[in-house]
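User: I'm putting together a small comparison set for a docking exercise, and I want a reference complex before I start. The sequence is below, and the ligand is zinc ion. Could you produce the 3D structure with the ligand included, as structure tokens?
Assistant: Of course. I'll restate your input first, then give the structure tokens for the complex.
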Amino acid sequence: MRIIMLGAPGAGKGTQAKKIADKYGIPHISTGDIFRANIKAGTELGKKAKAYMDQGALVPDELVVDLVADRVKQPDCEKGYVLDGFPRTIPQAESLDQVLSSMGQEIGFAINVEVPDEHIVRRMSGRRACVGCGATYHVVHAPSKKEGVCDRCGEPLILRDDDKPETVEKRLSVYHEQTQPLIDYYSGKGCLKEVDGTKDMEEVFTDICAILGE
Ligand code: ADP
Ligand code: ADP
Ligand code: ZN
């Protein structure tokens, strides 16, 4: 089961991807998480990526394409995976297709989590991320048990720099320009599925499970 999550920043891709990964026993691959882990570890990749991420811009395709190509060839990806935050441009989608077709594989589902822009800025300003394990919360919709502290690892929760309103606006315009065209791309391949991301998290997940089956 090879799945791609599409949707604006803050649409709920990560939230749903985690639930899918748990239910179907496949890895959740988030390129944003991979970049943040590299920034934290101070790697060369992290240093390069940070400059773009802080601006709300996309990291250049060449820094992300090989990384994902290597990841999906790992043994734990044999049964499938859920890609969250990749692809984000048409060239990324095309190179993913090439990698997959060289392995005789293809994407099964591209799930577009639809949330209008008006909701996004509000949602993002309430998102909190764990500095330790990357877990995501929301101050209203998915609060941690103890305010400001991660349920999973006890580390502090922060508002990501790129979730501040001015950067969110920029990320939304980047999304419309560079990522939204993927909706037509996957529609053309016949694997696009749409869900209403404004419903509450459990309802969105129920809709996704109905698409994926079992
Ligand atoms: P969100 O969860 O809000 O959609 P992510 O955590 O997926 O955001 O990504 C954070 C940032 O990391 C993006 O704004 C972008 O700078 C960078 N990034 C993540 N994935 C990609 C990608 N596939 N291509 C280019 N940049 C990416
Ligand atoms: P993305 O990965 O698309 O950027 P996230 O899954 O991180 O989005 O969700 C963005 C924020 O919105 C998080 O704080 C999350 O807890 C919250 N959230 C996710 N899904 C919903 C939903 N259906 N209703 C309300 N808030 C949500
Ligand atoms: Zn944590």
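The chain is about 50% helix and 15% strand. The first strand starts at residue 2 and ends at 6.
User: Thanks, that's exactly what I needed.
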